[in-house]
Amino acid sequence: MAERIRHDGALVVGAGLAGLTAAMAAAPARVLLLTEAPLNHGCSSAWAQGGVAAALSGDDAPELHAQDTVIAGAGLVVPEVARLLAEEGPAAVRRLAELGAPFDRKPDGAFAQSLEAAHSRARVARVKGDQAGRAIMEAVTVAALAAPHIQVKVGAKLVGLLQDATGRVRGVLAREGKEIVEITAHAVILATGGIGGLYAVTTTPAELKGEGLGLAALAGATIADPEFVQFHPTAIDIGRDPAPLATEALRGEGAKLVDAAGQPFMALYHPDAELAPRDVVARAIHAERTARRGAFLDAREAVGAHFPDEFPAVFAACMGGGIDPRVQPIPVAPACHYHMGGIATDTDGRTSLPGLYAAGECASTGVHGANRLASNSLLEAAVFGARAGRAAREECAPAAPILRAAPAPELPPEALQALRVAMSRDAGVIRDAAGLERLLGDLVALQARHGRAAALVTARLVAEAALARRESRGGHFRSDFPDAHAAERTFVTAAVRAACRAA
Ligand code: SIN
Hints:
CATH architecture of the largest domain: 3-Layer(bba) Sandwich
Number of strands: 20
Shape: globular
Number of helices: 14
Number of domains: 3
Radius of gyration: 21 Å
Structural class: alpha/beta
Strand order of the largest sheet: 7-3-2-11-18
CATH class of the largest domain: Alpha Beta
Bound molecules: succinic acid
Distance between the termini: 38 Å
């Protein structure tokens, strides 16, 4: 019999920027925050190099930011959600600064902002070149730990959701060491991050395997747009797992993409060359590598000797891999970077299941559409994390009895590795029906052997939706359907999937 803990307040799962922001915003409700990894580990937020996009300068406006977000999202962004994100963006960045995030400033004290691809203005607030995620997370973590209403439980892994007979989510099952603990609460906010760990090549912590999404799907929550995965074009190809990132800001500073012979190639693919949309750059690099011409980011002229000061994280990663980016081009490859899809939510983080909220990368508010605009993810975590926290604090637990639940099985390491290789091979930068059908066959076989592990459930959602979307749009490119023609979002539930398979 599992130990049962009754928490009179909200339960937040995940300690990235969305989880910590939600926890702080839920005050005065009591918050129990569960995280498997130690604080500031195992979350993408702390690894973000770019910064936070927001219309903070005199020549910018939320309408322009919203417009760029809609255009980047390739027809699937919900315009009202983009407007909300852009309107609440400047206050969210100022709030992070008040909490101690040391954003770069101009001599007059205004935020120094830089340009990234597909932004019509320089609007990315940064910290020392590529340190934004780490510095923001340090500040927010200190604030969350000091908040008297938040209690943090480290070493607790989410392995199931507790529900009552109405389907309302009433708490979670967590694994602590070998023990399974049932924790009931008034509301559960999932902030469990993305799916990079489902791919063999990823820029995110490998722990992030979409398990929160998979468990929500198993509980019956609606999942939106799972096929839309963003591949960052310039992961540093030095054989590390996860692959370190070479931030897009380097291209914003003028770094060039060249082949092994030193020839720039991006102008052959898009008029905006290095600053083309991220999916276009990722496919161009994929094509150059597939043609065995190689792909390198040459920042010798644009950054050169300033590397250690201006891009310390990229510099350290390169040097660790035997590349001195001051004098050598950096070998790059596309890598899974961000999941636009997720647990479908409204603008207050409410999912289709009463009592269950989601925020950050595991959620799909509709703000990213088919392709997230660079540096909108930390902003989304801050804006919608806060909204979810405020909404969840109003919840009260009903009296209905809670149904018994079993923890989802875990994938053993060799099965996970097979899954990652298959996902990169068949649900990567370029997809087609034959590859996706092969992938689904592999996933069905893994499920037959290892059960409905949450990571497998999520991988199947990605693969099935990618197979069903017979067009190319944003991060989803089908070589057998290269044109765009169905500007509709995907909404799917595990129950519908089961029915479809039975039919
Ligand atoms: C980058 O710095 O290139 C990544 C920023 C982002 O993913 O938003």
